[in-house]
Amino acid sequence: MIIETYTMGKLEVSENQIYHFSKGIPGFDDEVDFALIAMPDGPFWVLQSVHEQSLSFLLSDPFVFYPSYEFELPDDEAEELAIESEVLVRCILTLKEDVEASTINLLAPIVLNPIDLTGKQIVLHRTPYHTKHSLLQEHTAIDGKDGG
Its quaternary structure (predicted)? Predict the structure, then answer.
């Protein structure tokens, strides 16, 4: 399948790269199909809307930046995504011109079922995480000393 992207032009993606988000992503409820595109350098992916070329999110594996990151996936969310064994967790990055100011959203991870190709952004409750953790400072971001 060929999809149009704003930043990468036309891309060919396979069916096993297309994830269905039954309720969209918060703020983008009408967009339900996204291609997960691995970037060649580093632990980064682009989650690109299949239908809206200007809608994409830069994702990363949160465990690369925060090895101690953990949360319990609520049973109803696991059931909705039909997760039995395999699961991918990615988090949305916000890049800044000053790389040191770039952040990762640990409060609302993107949870993906790579078997059924379903996904959902899960907002965590009762957690020390928030939406703007520094990419460079695990210890200050989680203990609350980063002010964010």
Answer: Interacts with translational regulator CsrA and flagellin(s).
